[in-house]
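Dig into these lines:

——
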Amino acid sequence: MRDQTVSRNYAETLFELARRNDAMVEYGDGLDTVARLLDENPRFRMFLETPRIEDGDRKALVRKVFGESIPTHVLNFVLVTIEKRRQRLLRTISRQYQALLDDHLGRQHVEVTLAREADEATQAMIAERLTVALGKKAIPHIRVKPEIIGGLIVRTADTIFDGSVRRRLDGMRRQLLRAELPTGALGDT
């Protein structure tokens, strides 16, 4: 829990700096570039997070790798996390920053589960309808699970809307099992 709080504080600090410089998206992209490399390259992550390596060596490599590709303030921010021994939190800080940016820009990520792949037009229609329903710009993350048979399942931060055919069939099954048949309905005459 403490790491989440620390990460949130770091993210808020960078976000405020980005807001002052009118570069919120650019700073987020820069921090995301660092976080993606940490996710994709275990050797880089180990180099950055191993305590046996001198901070000066880490900083030199970070400057070499990111010096021209991310905003200077973001580069300096990453260097400060190394100084403060918080570099292992960079991926979490990046996620926290993106959440702040999404909130600021009125965006909401939504997980959408479909029974089969959707074409671009269907994906655009889903995004449009979710945007209207949520009152925020919906960013759908579509995944396919054939076992839902049809329809869709939408999951937002803390809410699930299950419009799948499987759920409807399960509901009908439960209703049929609870139903009482009138006497004589089976030909007891």
Notes: The chain has two domains: 2-103, 106-178. The two ends are 70 Å apart (CA to CA). The CA atoms of residues 14 and 20 lie 10 Å apart.
